[in-house]
Amino acid sequence: MPKKSYRQALNEALHHEMGRDPRVVVIGEDITGGAGASGEQDAWGGAFGVTKGLLGAFGRERVLDTPITESAFVGAAAGAAMTGLRPVAEIMFVDFLGVCFDQIFNQAAKFRYMFGGKAITPLVIRTTYGAGTRSASQHSQALYPIFTHIPGLKVVIPSNPYDAKGLLIQAIRDDDPVIFLENKVLYDMTGEVPDGAYTVPFGAANIVRDGEDALIIALGRMVGFAEKAAAELAREGIECTVLDPRTTSPLDEETILEMVEENKGRVVIVDESSPRCGMAADIAAIIAEKAFAHLKAPIVKVTPPHTPVPYAPDLERAYLPDPDKIAAAVRQVVSYKD
Amino acid sequence: MQGLQLPRERLLEAYRLMRTIRVFEDRVSAEMDTGDIPGNTHLYAGQEASAVGVCLHLTDTDRIASTHRGHGHCIAKGCDVDGMMAEIFGKATGICRGKGGSMHIADLGRGMLGANGIVGGSPPIACGAALTAKVNRTRDVAVAFTGDGGVNQGTTAESLNLARVWMLPVIFAVEDNGFGEATASSFATAGDICRRAEGYGMPARKVDGVDFFAVHDAMGEAVERAREGGGPTLLHIVTPRYYGHFSGDADTYRSAEEKAAMRRDQDCLARFRTRVTQASLLTPDDLDAVDRSVSAAIDGAVLAARAADRPALETLLTDVYVRYA
Given a cut of 90, is residue B113 above it in pLDDT? Predict the structure, then answer.
């Protein structure tokens, strides 16, 4: 199978779906780059190059550059979705969703319910998240718990190129609004990605590695860190399962609870979002509520501290979870004696 | 076509819609006083010529996005009055099955994309509907109803810009009823609303919203421009607001004299009646017959809404998603 980057996998998904369905349009800031300028058109293909080449293939009628005006174009994408298009809007950084939140949580997420089931809103909002690029507090957050909290939204966090393509195609074909979060550190990650179109279903967790001494649940970029930790721990004789939920809404509770039992009730949850009301807190609560009898040690969360994301490299490294922190947490749950 | 040249049946339809809005709102106000309507309502009475003057130009595939004061827009766009009343009573037969209430009445089949509980919520959505029309090359248009309050929201400013940048077939119908909630627009709105639109390079007109014909004719120009690919227009429609911000608002920020004078001097229904009878387009008997049939229809809507079943409790959990794996 050909090896491709996470970026290329996403680009292929957009090409496939725009070619397959004329209702799919892409909307966003600099998604071509160069609109109205005298020089190169499609100069950027998005701030991270994900939409590169769509302009040449599909033209300005379906590849729509916008002013820097997130409320208007995200709201317009929601309105277009309700009236027959299938828009994929790009928000350059998840942090910027703060300026258009009304259009997401009061409008797009609620049309169907408020209108008694009469509306469908097939909207995808692609955005980037995550620390690790020295981008500081307003360009590095991992805000997916906020979207997970809101009924009516689906939330997708691909951890590798294969999933990125399959989950994005699934998102575009889905009839509900989807927030699709791409970790910007992963864009150059490579992996096996089929050339053709395929989907990865929502709400189906991926067992990335099988063990039986402890369960590590990890999301997005943290999945790779968890795999590194698990490899290190295997050398010490501790075999871990690494579970990637892939989507936080819907969340594959069934597999999570099964894996808790199969891994002797010793659980570590790794999450790049803030510790309070974050995904680790949410998943820990579900396990405590529904699998309490199987737990053999307190659940340990590995998250950033409850601070904004710092700029200086040493501070940012200290902020993020990493394989060493994860391995230490696993040793703690495995050695716990009640 | 100019409003005064409309055929008889269109004039009767315009009057029927305006009268329906007035009677509907007065009746909702009375029913609110009984305590049997569970939520809150924001009444549109006094503004009827705006909704009808705008929507009479539209077909079911033209879309509107509305405001918290949306009953008038819904009726003018053809939403079922029985379903609206049942929705306001929170019943299973409501147009949104009792899940939306007054502030979320929608009928997508009629091109009514929803009343909206968020001031300034509608302009981006209407831009999206206009984008759909543009991409699909349908010649449909979209209307964003907002108000003198909504026009100060950033979403409206952003939408005016985006609509002009993308040359969208959208009309911004800014209904200036003098008040954003309890604060006068003379206090809250700086400068001139039409000049704001002109600043974005789009045509704008200030219109007397008590005069159905003035609204109708201004909207006619705007719709034609939009359908012909000429892009967006803003209409600044000045209307009275007969009731307070919400039903139950004691409305003490306006004097009794001011309110009485407003109802006496700024009544779009009375103005319409005078115009069409003086021009011998319709007779008083024609209009009286409409009045009688509208009153009967609203009586029927209230009786049906009161008699209807409440939503089944299991519907609490439905319609959150199309499918949730």
Answer: yes
Residues of B in contact with A81 (CB under 8 A): 128
pTM of the model: 0.96
Is A139 among the residues known to form the active site? Answer: yes
* B1 confidence band (pLDDT: 50, 70, 90): confident
pLDDT digits (tens, 9 = 90+) for B168-178: 999 999 999 99
**Rounded CA separation B272/B49 (Å):** 9
Pairing status of strand A247-249 against strand A154-156: antiparallel
Best to test chain B binding among A63, A112, A114 (most B CBs inside 10 Å): A114
Say which amino acid occupies A82.
Answer: M
Q: Does A73 touch chain B (CB under 8 A)?
A: yes
If DSSP codes are grouped into helix, strand and coil, which group holds residue B211? coil
ipTM of the complex: 0.95
CB of A71 within 8 Å of a chain B CB? The answer is yes
Q: What tokens does A314 get? A: 């040493």
Candidate CATH numbers 3.40.50.720, 2.30.29.30, 3.40.50.970, 1.10.260.40; the one for domain A3-192 = 3.40.50.970
| Nearest residue in chain B measured CA to CA from A252 | B325
Catalytic residue among A16, A139, A149, A306: A139
Are B171 and B197 spatial neighbours (Cβ–Cβ below 8 Å)? no
